[in-house]
Amino acid sequence: MSYVGETLSNLLHQTAFFNLTVGNYVMIAVACFFLFLAIKKGYEPLLLLPIAFGMLLVNIYPDIIASPEETSNGVGGLLHYFYILDEYSILPSLIFMGVGAMTDFGPLIANPISFWLGAAAQIGIFTAYLLAILFGFSDQAAAAVSIIGGADGPTSIFLAGKLGQSALMGPIAVAAYSYMSLVPIIQPPIMKLLTTKEERSIKMAQLRPVSKLEKILFPIVVTIIVCLILPTTAPLVGMLMLGNLFKESGVVNQLTETASNALMYIVVILLGTSVGASTSAEAFINWATIKIVVLGLVAFVFGTAAGVLFGKILCHITHGKINPLIGSAGVSAVPMAARVSQKVGAEEDPTNFLLMHAMGPNVAGVIGTAVAAGVFMAIFGV
Prior knowledge:
The protein is an all-alpha fold. The protein is built from 20 helices and no strands. Helix 5 runs parallel beside helix 15 (234-249), helix 9 (139-146) runs antiparallel to helix 10 (153-162) and helix 12 (183-194) packs across helix 19.
């Protein structure tokens, strides 16, 4: 009987109930809330769901992301090996290739002024950078945190890894993807506050047709120009444009299909679960995380406002030919930010179709955020 009792006692103490802290239970509750947002509300479910489940796993079984040095048998946890691919910037770069294979740069090519709107929205990143330094972050940590303002999760993970901010990668990634998923909630009040009813009702002229040759040349030219000026952007901009060249060339349909579907979804699973697993209670529940969440929101708000305000300037310069609402799409959350521009415009006039016009600043924002990351890497000599 003593053997049976000892065995049952050992089994009982091997359960997670005896090892979890209050912080772990808090994080489990947060994970369940994120699962609710992903499944019930449909907020960026492709990324939020695996991130939330990774968060759930690591707070029940921390060893799932343990490094080989932290285990008795010298074998790391499953998600540790996924996480290494984040730290080495492999998964974010592959996601960019998939995004490129799914993206139509036609609206940006047809209306090059969209580049300026995408660039204006990056002001939020540099505003948050200065504030992060005031909040006590080091220069490199401040840069890693501020890139959240681009509402681009892969770029946030990429820059955090490049700048050696792995300890902050979990909170940064969760904040970035959370704000991406909350675009329909955060942006509309800012857009309405900064524009008049007349401005929101502006109808823009139909975009000109873009030739196949232009679409083929665009990724090649952008790669050459951007990477010559900022070589550090090559992993992101290069992969984005390679994926787009697959799509627009029309000669490698198999590669386009793989990059935009099977490979993309595999990478999303690996990246999402590993990022979620970096949010253990010990790493996530602290003042630094609170500061990151606040600064991320500030960066996102400033980026949205800067895009809209610059849209107002262009509206004035062009004598009412540009609807300022499309400037908010420059924050890079593709294609959700463009859909929000369409939705807010349609609320004033149901016959107003801004989606394709907003896609120009939206994809310009993707490039702009990658360039901002490149600027930081160049500054710090990475």
